[in-house]
Specification:
- The protein contains four helices and three strands, in the order ααββααβ.
- With 122 residues, it is α+β, with helices and mostly antiparallel strands.
- It has a domain of 70 residues.
- Strands 2-1-3 form a three-stranded antiparallel β-sheet.
């Protein structure tokens, strides 16, 4: 009984200490937060690459470029050297692929909204 009384009267660890203030949206983040971010292994990771359709021809490493139509299923391939010679090294692959599909499109209805192919870049 004596032990129970002493335990009941003993101060609880952390009960009397005030809680640490939380960080609000307008407050600066603590240095330990930034240190944890910078020491994380993922901090040195390379940024994800841009999708191939948004790259310029000079940025693409493949030798053969392929674009297919989601509408009619056609596939058009062109060598990167030929595409660079025809459209220039600074041309976007999205524009070149769309032009290649449009030049050989077989789905012509006469309506601008319905004509043309729907490119899928590979």
């Amino acid at each position: 009984m004596k032990q129970i009384q002493t335990l009941a009267n003993a101060p609880v660890v952390g009960k009397n200490t005030p809680p640490a203030p939380s960080v609000g949206p307008g407050d600066d983040l603590p240095d330990s937060y930034w240190e944890a971010l910078l020491t994380d292994a993922r901090a040195d990771a390379v940024a994800p690459a841009k999708p191939v359709q948004t790259r310029k021809l000079c940025e693409i490493g493949r030798h053969v470029l392929r674009v297919s139509c989601r509408r009619c299923g056609r596939i058009v391939e062109i060598q990167k050297a030929d595409a660079t010679r025809l459209y220039g090294p600074q041309a976007l692959w999205r524009d070149v692929g769309q032009r290649l599909l449009d030049n050989t499109c077989q789905q012509r209805t006469g309506s601008h909204e319905e004509d043309g192919c729907w490119p899928a870049f590979e």
